[in-house]
């Protein structure tokens, strides 16, 4: 599914609303799909945010790198 920056903004607004005490939020995506979340669905909403962010980053050509540093302890 092709997400937009507006989709990401809508999901972030919904997360903030749930975190500040609202019981139920609705997120309308650019595809026309409307999803309703309650406080129990906050984890799912955060997962959706990560998915959208990853897709937007991939579309923008951004790469994510992890640097690992180790030592022998001497």
From TrEMBL:
Biological process, per Gene Ontology: viral life cycle
Signal peptide: none
SUPFAM superfamilies, A to Z: Head-to-tail joining protein W, gpW
Name used for this protein in its record: GpW protein
Species of the source: Desulfoluna spongiiphila
